[in-house]
Amino acid sequence: MTWVEQEKTALVATFRSSDAEAPTLCEGWNVRRLLAHLIQREQRPAGVLGDVISRKPPGQEPGLTKLTGTAMTPAGYQELIDRFSRDTPRWSPMSWAAEKLNLVEYVIHHEDIRRAGTEPAEPRDLPEDEQLAIRRQLGTLAKLGLRKAPVGVRLATPQGESREIKPGDGVTLTGDPVELALWVSGRRDAAHVNVTGDPGAVNAFQTWARAK
């Protein structure tokens, strides 16, 4: 199995063991709605576009509401999980480019479930090679999320790997790849990441991050 296949299998298991009404780290989304998002993203691109055009706030997207409306009973929720667990249609880029498009997506949303609520789960002990695969895909996500940072930014792991994301003097974000993925995607309170650098740069960076 590829890493994305293994992560999807683990995510499906977490969906099956989770309360559909439980909160997630995604504002306005419970576990059921997060599941619907993943199905819509992979199987119903027109629904994704419709929700974007509707400009409804999180929790009120019409496409996701339609999907979740079919899964309000325990049996309906399990059927929705079954739908997600099936192979993605071959016409979808989420099928033939799954490793590049879905690995980090699955990892982040998996932690959206695990780390939400009053008793968030501890980080998972993922295989080193999977962590490496996640780290290799962080560049685009990090550059998008940090492009407007007021100082230079570098990502680093506790093992010593380092990558410049925004040129210039500034700050270093240090954490395992999953933690860095959570941080740059906006899940900062849930991410185990240290921000270091010149005090002035750290202060400017943290002020900017809190305002986002």
Automatic annotation (TrEMBL):
Annotated region described as Disordered, given as residue ranges: 50-69
Superkingdom of this protein's organism: Bacteria
Signal peptide (residue range): none
InterPro entries: CHP03085, DinB/YfiT-like, Maleyloyr_isom, MDMPI_C-term_domain, MDMPI_metal-binding
Ranges for domain Mycothiol-dependent maleylpyruvate isomerase metal-binding: 9-90
GO terms of molecular function: metal ion binding
Domain MDMPI C-terminal positions: 151-202
Full protein name: TIGR03085 family protein
Originating organism: Microlunatus elymi
Source lineage: Bacteria, Bacillati, Actinomycetota, Actinomycetes, Propionibacteriales
